[in-house]
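Journal club prep — side note

Before the paper discussion, L.F. wants everyone to see what a predicted structure for a comparable chain looks like in token form. Sequence:
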Amino acid sequence: MSRPQTTAFIILYIKRNVYDFEKVRSQFFILFSTHACPACQEVGTLKKHAWYIKYYYNEQLQILRCICISCGVTHAIIPEFSLPGTSIGIEEAEEYIKLREQGQGRGRASKVFSGEKVMSVNHPTVLDKAFRVAVERAKAIFYGQVDYTLKGCAWIEALTGKKGRPILNLNQYCLEHRVNGVCFTRYSVLLFRENTSRNRIPHNTGAVGTFKVVVDSW
């Protein structure tokens, strides 16, 4: 039996001023009891597992990990505002990408990272490459679903049917279709193995709500 994949994540839709690690941990069952595991798509199988530190600019965030007791895959519960695989914010990264696609140079576009939300000098180049690679990977995985000639944000909008949040929307779309998030993540394995359980949720049920947890307040 092959070792299960253990590097995956779930997006928790929550703002920075609301995010509270202790409350996420203590209310885990309430939040995730009906959430489907992105890897095997079974519901009610996620359990608290561990936690680690992730940087959000200069701030340290505690991140909860959960494990699916059905397939053995662990998932980091990443808050919406934090860009997976980096220490920067997702909203600033998305604004930077949009400005670049509008023709602005790296120096001008990277001004979205200022004040307390500063990043390293070479990060704009890294962002450009990482976004390009993410879209290329997604195009290969979802080949034929939408116009392949579309580029960047336009292709993501066509695929997901959603506008305005290209990185967030693409990652969420992937997680709802048994694909590990591709945008700015460092995961070497993107496709989750097929689950043979009779309790697996089919893709066409429209049960998108089971893949999304939103916390507006506590």
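L.F.'s comment for the group: The chain has two domains: 8-86+186-214, 90-172. Keep this in mind when we get to the figures.
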